[in-house]
Amino acid sequence: MIRAERLAFRYPDGTPALDGVTLTIAAGEFVALIGQNGAGKTTLAKCLAGLLRPTHGRVVVGGIDTAAKGVMKALVRRIGYVFQNPDHQLFNTRVYDEISYGPKNLGVPERERDAVVREVAAVAGVRPELFSEHPFFLSKGLRQRVAIASTLAIRPQVIVVDEPTTGQDYRQSIDVMEFLTRLWRQQGHTIIIVTHEMPIVAAYAQRVIALCRGRVLADGPTREVFAQPDLLAQTFVKPPQVTRLARAWAGAGVRADALTVDELVDEVVRVAGGERAVAVPRAGRQEPPAGPGAQADA
Amino acid sequence: MRLAVEVERFSWRYPFAQRDALREVSLAIPAGEFTLVVGPNEAGKTTLMLAIKGIIPHSLAGRHDGTVRVFGEPVAQKNAAVLARQVGYVFGDPDAQFTALTVEEEILFGLENVGVPTSEIGARIRRASELTMISDLLDKPPYDISGGEKQRVAIASVLAMDPEILILDEPTSMIDPLGKDLIVDICGSLKRDRRMTVIVVEHNVEAFAPLADRVVLVRDGRIEREGAPRTFFDDVESLIDCGVYPPQVTQVFARLQRRGLYAGPLPLTDEEGVAAGTRLLQGAGRWR
I need a labelling partner for A83 at 20 to 30 A (CA). Which of A65, A159, B127, B286 fits? Predict the structure, then answer.
């Protein structure tokens, strides 16, 4: 679905942000981009979404080279980008106009447009009572839902969300992540998130791409990437606390790559209770109150 | 025991609001304590901090009942300049408080405002910038540095005023992991070396719980729970339900406690957790 080849990007002042990134993301993946600030996460995400034009190399999304001329209209239907700060994206004075802006621009007829707006608003948890509100008077969580709804309204296959949980409390973070998981699982969207919240990554992402100084430092299933703390330390990312405990207790027979609180508690109970170790990874359970997430399918 | 902050049945309603943002809140914070304030967004955490800083009721319109005292004196009757010196406040979004062209001027601005003698200014700036690890940023423009650096500059400008109470309102919510660690380090040295009264409002409980003498849960305009961190986090599910994510290590042992496998105090750090778990597994004769 997405292919980046020897991707490099320099900001106009010469600062290199990406330096030879090659990767493929298949349709239907749930990917987290992690790394220190300045590692290139957001730059990579913006290049993938065609918002930045690579200095070298290329990005192909669903067969379209993002740097080609006249492809924007086709590209926005393949990949949508939700900014970290919803206020960088929202500009209409009514929630309804904000959500219908994309389809309107793409020439979707009015009646069809209304159906799309209502549907994506429902999916994103934006109640119709809010349609005539000014987005700026909504809470940050709701503004972000409006931003996601307006991205969804264009029906992109791939949805990129930059820092979906920043500034939100844990309950709200779970709500956003559960929502993205539904889009991923039930509607088949490819989800790419940029985040610093490692417990969130552990609970939801199938695959982790760790960046360091514009290069890919690690790329693989979440469980495998978090099992390499020394590698991650290069980009100052600490894997979730649970993974550190699990490694320390591996000598007693606790599986060293436990990812979530639930998994680790089950492991300690199993080992302390004297059950025999199971070699096959069990389907991961989520922390309460998170519902089923990525690990079950990993 | 000298109390830094006493909040007594304090209620506050913003103009045009349908209900009180704070409802009969009572809280006592001894001088030198480190307090971590947690709770869902919009619960009233920031409003409570504004009441301690005196922005409520001095600069914000609204209706209040009850009293807030800082070092024994009611905030409502305190002189604004005295309060400005006594209570330092750092907001979550540092950009919101920058006005100067260089980092040094930014720090200087506050000092001149409260009338610190010129002879003392250089030393104050040096001390604050060393503590916050920004000495090499002093001649840079505040808009041209990273988010984590901005937050440290904001803390430096407040610390330079030598406040007796420091309030940090979501100091790490906008910055990256390395930047967060540095803020936590700064808080650690304020606690250890200066015994400053520090109040931190944060969602990142894992980073601050090990420093906290006391954790306060604000929910729905009230203080719903208050206690030492080792007992505060024992009901993991209900905390998660109100948007608070206890440190994972604490969650693990709270759950083991409930299943009858663990009886000791709840660990707050990796090291404590590793040690407690090792003892537990050794006790079960499982260490190979």
Answer: A65
* HSE-CB of B26 using CA atoms within 13 angstroms: 2
Q: Which class for B123: exposed (0-12), middle (13-18), buried (19 or more C-beta within 10 A)?
A: exposed
Residues B211 and B194 in one domain: yes
Q: What is the pLDDT of residues B114-138, one digit of tens each?
A: 888 999 999 999 999 999 999 999 9
CA–CA separation, B30 vs B12, rounded Å?
23
| DSSP summary character for residue B76 | G
Question: What is the rounded CA–CA span in Å between residue A72 and residue A78?
Answer: 10
Q: β-strand A30-34 against A190-194: which pairing, if any?
A: parallel
Sheet with B87-90: list strands edge to edge.
B87-90, B165-169, B197-201, B34-38, B214-219, B222-227
On whether any CB of chain B is under 8 Å from the CB of A166, the answer is yes
B146 and B266 in a single domain? The answer is no
Residues of chain A found within 8 Å of residue B281, distances taken between Cβ atoms: 249, 252, 254, 268, 271-272
Considering only CB atoms, which chain B residues are within 8 Å of A170?
203, 240, 243-245
Please identify every stretch of chain A with a pLDDT value under 50, giving residue numbers as ranges.
276-298
Which residues in chain B have Cβ-Cβ distances shorter than 8 Å to A140? 41
In sequence order, the β-bridge partners of residue B167 are B89, B199
**Nearest CB to A37 within list B41, B147, B236:** B147
CATH number at residue B187: 3.40.50.300
B59 and B150: one domain?
Answer: yes
Chain B residues in contact with A273 by the CB 8 A cut-off are 284
Whole-number Å distance between alpha carbons of B17 and B215: 28
Q: Please state the three-class secondary structure of chain A as a single string.
A: CEEEEEEEEECCCCCEEEEEEEEEECCCCEEEEECCCCCCHHHHHHHHCCCCCCCEEEEEECCEECCCCCCHHHHHCCEEEECCCHHHCCCCCCHHHHHHHHHHHCCCCHHHHHHHHHHHHHHHCCCHHHCCCCHHHCCHHHHHHHHHHHHHCCCCCEEEEECCCCCCCHHHHHHHHHHHHHHHHHHCCEEEEECCCHHHHHHHCCEEEEEECCEEEEEEEHHHHHCCHHHHHCCCCCCCHHHHHHHHCHHHCCCCCCCCHHHHHHHHHHHHHCCCCCCCCCCCCCCCCCCCCHHHHC
Count CB pairs under 8 A between chains A and B. Answer: 127
Residue B94 binned pLDDT confidence (cut-offs 50, 70, 90): confident
Residue B19 belongs to domain spanning: 3-246
Whole-prediction pTM: 0.87
Question: Tell me: the pLDDT tens digits for A60-77?
Answer: 999 999 999 999 889 999
Q: Which of A11, A15, A37 to mutate to test the interface with B (most CBs of B within 10 A)?
A: A37
Instruction: Identify the residue among B170, B236, B245, B272 best suited for mutation to test binding to A, counting A beta carbons within 10 A and taking the highest.
Output: B245
Domains and CATH numbers, chain A: 2-78+156-238 (3.40.50.300)
**Nearest to residue B155, comparing CAs of B120, B190, B113?**
B190
What is the structure's pLDDT at A235?
A: 84
